[in-house]
Amino acid sequence: MSTTPAQDTAAHDGAAPASRAxxxxxxxxxxxxDPATPVASGPDRARRQAAILARALGDRPGSTxxxxxxxxxxxxxxxxxxxxxxxxxxxxxxDWSQDALRRAATHIGAVRGELTAPGLPIASGAADAVLFSxxxxxxxxxxxxxxxxxxxxxxxxxxxxxxxNLAAWYNRxxxxxxTQPVFSEVSLRGIHGRPGSQVVxxxxxxxxxxxxxxxxAAGFEVVRITGxxxxxxxxxxxxxxxxxxxxxxxxxxxxxxxxxRGGPDATATERANxxxxxxxxxxxxxx
Length: 287
Known about the structure:
This protein has helices at residues 28-33, 43-57, 77-86, 98-104, 142-152, 169-176, 208-217, 238-244, 268-273; strands spanning 67-71, 90-95, 109-112, 127-133, 153-164, 220-228, 253-260. The chain is an alpha/beta fold. The protein has a domain at 39-165 and 202-263: 3-Layer(aba) Sandwich (Rossmann fold), CATH 3.40.50.150. It has a 7-stranded mixed beta sheet, sandwiched between helices. The two termini are 15 Å apart.
């Protein structure tokens, strides 16, 4: 999911790095419109997040299925995996990238939207839950993005956020030796200061402690933070990476379940535009 490249851009990432270096990109727009840029978090993590959300939504016999937005749906593969776990609830994909939407439309209903003005094309309080998988690390303005997610969520609605962990166990060791942390990027044209070659557009990284502070400041209550392994950890270290998940602050990937706190739904974006958006209706689009 992304907004305009000059403001905020985002996409699912986490797929294994390509074996060759990607061609240099001089803008976030080029990066996120490039089909070679990794756009999937991987099926295991998608299922894990969906299972957390399914438990949170609970059984709703006789009730209307929940509306779940996958904000930053990328090519829709993660949303399609989550949809099988979340059935009969309805998933609507949202992304800024036109190319991503064309690919996502083969998997799920998807709409184009931005996290900054004019905002998502979704009415305030229309969503029961939001999946926000490996998006926040791509954003120039995460505060505006969280405001917009809060706007579209119903009172007590659920936010499932995942992001790479700046304080992962191996990053702590790398920093001791003066090496740039894994997941961090200092350029859109290449990887510098650490191993790797695949640029995916990470602008900022978070720790569990930072998220426990940031989300309440944005109007969310953190329910739980859990850890997930990173599939590209070298094979000899994978048992250690899985073990680190038992202490989320050390895990490779942070999975955060939060709920919207009560209070006014209007956000700065909404007030500035004088709009409330439209109901959450999926549209298969190739605009």
